[in-house]
Amino acid sequence: MASPGTAAAPPAAPPPPEPRPRRPRTALRHDRADRISLALMLGVPALLVLGLVWIPAAVTVVLSFTRWDGIGGLDTIEWVGTQNYVDAATIYPPFEPALRNNLVWLLALFTVPTLLGMFLAVLLDRELRGGRIYQSVFYLPVVLSLALIGFIWQLVYSSDQGLLNAFLALFSNAPAVDWFGDPDINLYAVLVAAGWRHTGYIMLLYLAGLKAVDPSLREAAAIDGAGPVRTFTSVVFPALLPINLVVVVVTVIDGLRAFDIVWIINRGRNGLELISALVTSNVIGEASRVGFGSALAVVMLAISLVFITIYVSTVLRGAQR
Amino acid sequence: MHPRPPAPRGPRRRTLLRGLAGAGTLAALPALAGCSTRDPNTVTLVSNRANDAQRTAVRDSVDLFEAGSDHRVEINTIDATSFQESINNYLQGTPDDVIGWFAGYRTRFFAERGLISDVSAVWEGLEGAFTDQVRDLCTAPDGRQYMVPDSTAPWAVFHRRSLFEENGYEVPATRAEFVELCERMRRDGLEPLASGVREGWPAMGMFDHLNLRINGPEYHLELLDGAHSWDSPEVRSVFGAWAELLPHHQPDPLGRGINEAQTALVRREAGMMLCGMFLTHVFPEGEDLDDLDCFPFPEFDPEIGADAMEAPVDGFMASAAPRNPEGAHALLAHFGTLEAEELYTAVDPQALPARVDADISGLSPLKAKVKDMVDNAGALTQYMDRDSRPDFASIVMIPALQRFLSRPDDIADLTATIQRQKLSIFGQ
Fold first, then answer.
1. pTM above the 0.90 mark?
2. Is there a single domain that holds both residue B140 and residue B184?
């Protein structure tokens, strides 16, 4: 699977122009050892990027026009043109909800956990008592293993034995809520779990950024009579621009490759469809619809490309300035 | 891709496949499989029977084999679900010599693709040990056998005997009696039918049984094999009958795992559960397990009867090129022997011996009853995901059945959707 996450890395720089012989300048002449080390330093990363990103991505695109079960030689590949794309758009019911859910996921991650993470970072940056403990507590979900996270939320959301329903039953006699099974609400229930993890991640990024903000900026703002809110919005936040860009990229990547939580809950079905889960269930396992799964992966790649293009052009524009 | 020079393609295709399929799951398997280039007398066995009882049972059976043979067996046990998700790639890598797997479509598929090897030589020593039907389940279209079957874990409607006795419930034989019993249970404050289908595949059981009772086993197998349209009155009548039973199911089945549903039966919150024999793994041994009883899914149409049964058969296959072919065949032959099957099925609570001549006197009353049901069954089927193409069963049917459970009222649109996808997957 061509992972759009890895594809977000900036492309390898083109090899530097060799000094032309027409105007020999001793200062720029490379000797043999220089050339070898240059070739290694550029060649090895270039080969890695080519072999791990570009070739798999190109092969995925090629395979998306075929029907293949992944078994046997290349002669068993059957070309079907754009049939896979047509099928996905017309007769594959999970496709449309998956697109929508990915979008909802992205928007949800951008709003709640990002703001919450920023808020927590600002609080923790004020050197509260026990700040390190809070910091560890909020960051903990990021390092927990997938299996454990699935188990924890199962304990919370299970409709018969779950904590949440037992708690709600104390206050109302309404029937138990089917948090995982009701396709109208399970996405939001899972988004709480995903946001729980994302918040800690964002918090840490902003915390690192806040520590790097020059304290004299704040002092100057304080002398000019700005309150804490004004200081943050007018002085500190603009100084965090590079971190903001990183957070945007991290959130987009997380939103698009969201996979693990829905997979462990119900394999990304029944309201929890995500493109990544559809790709996985089609390509791996006995289903082995390599061609069809590749077509879905290409759709995901296309969506990622939109964001990658925006990111790369922003970075390049920043570099030119 | 085609016009490229063919020479370096082999390994690259494999790299590509691994990359495609996600390195995570796959990285573990070659590591497990690739670690044996020692003793020529070693046979490697990969087992997907990962419950505690099953591990013990496999170990015991292998110990018996080693006691009477020069070969040594190395067992790799892999969780059943992970194994299922990676078997296609696993078989194309460097698989173990002997592989535990499912009979029927699932074995035939690998045989046709040349990923497993012919074991009809082993079957020559097993003449008459299995019914013709079990033999067919292990036979590919080329007429040769590719699996040695050892056990089966049939499906039935399970219940607690004590609960039925306390409330004076009678085992229902027909649809009317079944519905009446469900209504009575509801009045008694029980959930009549435990139901948990969050994993998706458990929903197939109810469809299979209703189709077997309403349209008969022959139609059922042809339907799953792609011979009939899914957008038909027959299929719609199955969903219709299911919709009538839905109010008697535990509510909100889509959010409940099958284990949670089984727990409802253990805790006497639910009266009955349509399930496979693997249900026995959640019943604590002793009093609880002895209290477990079962009956065949009731009759819906007197002309069709109620003697068709789902009895998924498990067994062992040989990899395409075993490193120790002689040892692999010897081990397979051992799994087919009466002693091995009796030993295995005595330890694993879900397993019944696949052989016809197995002695049932030592079996628990529940197992003896199920074995009797299997022996007298008019037809045995394997379960939807073993009787049909895996891509159709998992990619089309699971979401479709889940959709039915959350929106049971638009059956006509549902069957039309299934049929459109079926045409695309079966390629007409």
1. no
2. no
